[in-house]
Amino acid sequence: MVRLINRKNMDQVSNLAYRIMKVQEFFTYIREYNNPQITPCIYAMWHENQFCVHGLPDRGNVNILISNSLDGEIIARVCDKWGFQLCRGSSNRKGSVSGTLKMISKLKNGENIAIMVDGPRGPVHKVKSGAIVLAREANVPIIPVHWYSPDFTFVRFPSWDKMTSPIGPCRLLNIYGEPIYTDDKTDEQVAEEVRNSLLALEKSAPEKYQEARKLKLWNKRK
Question: What is the domain count for the chain?
């Protein structure tokens, strides 16, 4: 089977993806709710909500781990144009160690990291150890992030992770949980805490969204 995406058309594909996202950016209105404003930190989100990184503050100070695969190269080029910092790694042992060391260095340098904690292939809503290892080694908190919108233009795709994204004009809210620290906790305890926080954010999202509307967050300049 011939791949639709290959090294010959990589530039065209990444440029097309970026243009589509850039157009959508003009119609995407993201506001923040309860961001603890801690730097450096690790923003943790489900893979389905990966596009919520668009609403993170100080995009140029946010690093995203992206694999060294062909698909990862496309994503990396788009994220680079979008203003994010990149950490490249892979699923093999050598690539994984390299990516981890890069991210620890970034955190210790005062930069933030964004991680999809159940990625890149699931299982859905199972927190993997990556974010926990980084938080422990760099001594920084994990901050759960969930995004939500009741607008019909906020859609869920039929992918393995049920990815969410705005398509057309959409008002969204990035909702942040309390910082989670690794001190005196096992990896399993931290993973459960992160999972429970993300699920709680999802459950409370409609209520928080209504509170944000009362505060008229979308009437204020970002």
Answer: 1
Number of neighbours of residue 129 by Cβ within 10 angstroms = 13
Question: Which residue is listed with tokens 């994204």?
Answer: 165
Q: Say which DSSP state 157 is in.
A: -
| Nearest CA-CA partner of 169 in 32, 31, 23 | 23
Q: In what order do the strands lie in the sheet with 85-89?
A: 28-33, 170-176, 142-148, 42-45, 112-116, 62-67, 85-89
Q: 55 is in which domain, residue-wise?
A: 37-216
Residue 26 located in a structural domain: no
Spatial separation of the C-alpha atoms in residues 161 and 45, rounded to whole Å = 12
- CB–CB of 63/39 below 8 Å? no
Mean pLDDT of the chain: 89
Instruction: Identify the sign of the CA torsion 154, 115, 179, 38.
Output: negative
Flag whether 129 is in a domain.
Answer: yes
- Whether the model clears a pTM of 0.70, i.e. scores above it, the answer is yes
User: For 123-137, what is each residue's pLDDT tens digit?
Assistant: 999 999 999 999 999
Q: Is residue 132 one of the residues assigned to a domain? A: yes
Let me know if residue 5 belongs to a domain.
no
| Interval 72-82: pLDDT, tens | 788 888 888 88
Query: Alpha-carbon distance 170 to 55, whole Å?
Result: 13
Quick check: 85 and 64 in contact, CB under 8 A?
yes
